[in-house]
Amino acid sequence: KDLLFELAETKRDKEAELANLKRMIEDKKELLASIRSEKRKGIQLERELKDAQARLERLIEDLIAKSRVAKIGPMAKNLTWPCKGKVISRFGRVRHPKYNTTTRNNGIDIRAEKGTPVYAITSGTVSYSGRFLGYGNIILIEHDNGFYSLYGHLDRIMVRLGDRVERGQQIGTVGETGSLSGPMLHFELRKGGKPVDPLVWLK
């Protein structure tokens, strides 16, 4: 009788272990599927970002070709900050913490609350104002020395194509249009068509 009881108990223990093992296997399968799905999303986002960057390059090349600025001049290195906030992504190669993909950031990303004022870093003329796939609402300003500044993911745009803007003038507000990470300002500074590190030039 005791032997039968022990055998029955051993069987129950083994069945419980087997059920637990099956659950662990299923959990690992789900985790693996989730990781693969996230990786695919990351690859897709990386591709979309590169496509958006390529379209932006073409836009700026077209603007440079039409520009009346004869040559690129010097730019002072104490420019007005485009908005108040915290820099969360710097210029250069950036690894995405969630998707583990590496992309190039041609500017900086500044975390700020939606509605935070956005300012022109220095005087210039608005050469693009509106929606741009991958960047949301953007403003592109051509400065008098052939530099360009770009302000992306805006909520409000307060200037129009051809408007003359002065240093420190409010041109829009921070938003999350085209952003995958909440409200922020994507800011780029370009010497002609070439992206440069904005942090070198901002005061």
TrEMBL record:
Its cofactor is Zn(2+). Residues 4-69 form a coiled coil. GO terms for biological process: proteolysis. Keywords: Coiled coil, Hydrolase, Metal-binding, Metalloprotease, Protease, Zinc. One of its GO terms (molecular function) is metalloendopeptidase activity. CDD domains: M23_peptidase. Pfam families: Peptidase_M23. Residues 104-198 form the M23ase beta-sheet core domain. InterPro entries: Cell_wall_metabolism_enzyme, Dup_hybrid_motif, M23ase_b-sheet_dom. It comes from the Bacteria. This is Peptidase M23. The lineage of its organism: Bacteria, Bacteria division WOR-3.
